[in-house]
Amino acid sequence: MPAVAGTLVAWTLLELADGSALPLLLDEAEHTVRLVAPEADLLQEVVQPLVTTVRRITPADQVRPIVLRLLAGLDGETHVKALKIFFTMP
Questions:
Q1: How far is Cα 59 from Cα 82, in angstroms, rounded to an integer?
Q2: 45-73: b (≥16 Cβ within 10 Å) or e
Q3: For residues 2-11, average pLDDT
Q4: How far apart, in Å, are the Cα atoms of 21 and each of 11, 39, 78?
Q5: How far apart are CA 79 and CA 73, in angstroms?
Q6: Which of 10, 58, 73, 78 could tie 49 with a disulfide, CB 3.0–4.6 Å?
Q7: Alpha-carbon distance 90 to 17, whole Å?
Q8: pLDDT tens digits, residue range 42-87?
Q9: Alpha-carbon torsion, ordered 66, 7, 20, 23, to 10 deg
Q10: Of 57, 44, 51, 40, nearest to 13 (Cα)?
Q11: Ranges of each domain in the chain
């Protein structure tokens, strides 16, 4: 369930192309996922498919600015964690 929810959030964010939507999308998805998987790390489940998809559909030199713009809506520690996930992905 976390992987499915994360992928849905990532695809919705890509469709909206608006990083300010991510906090609300993430919050709602986390609320739902916690009902069945309380220990799930939904942020990782969102960032990984988001980055993977952006890498597949855009030139390499555009991946970083696009992903950073989409993650920019997150605040504080959540933003830092999302960036860490992004920058440590293979």
A1: 21
A2: bbbbbbbebbeeeeeeeebeebbeebbeb
A3: 96
A4: 12, 24, 14
A5: 8
A6: 10
A7: 24
A8: 999 999 999 999 999 999 999 999 999 999 999 999 999 999 999 9
A9: -140
A10: 51
A11: 2-88
DSSP string, 15-64: HHT-GGGHHHHHHHHHHHHHTT-TT--HHHHHHHHHHHHHHHHS-HHHHH
**Structure tokens belonging to residue 22:** 């991510």
Task: Note if the pTM is more than 0.85.
Answer: yes
What is d(CA 66, CA 49) in angstroms, rounded to the nearest whole number? 14
**Distance between CA atoms of residues 49 and 10, nearest Å:** 6
Are the CB atoms for 67 and 86 separated by under 8 Å?
yes
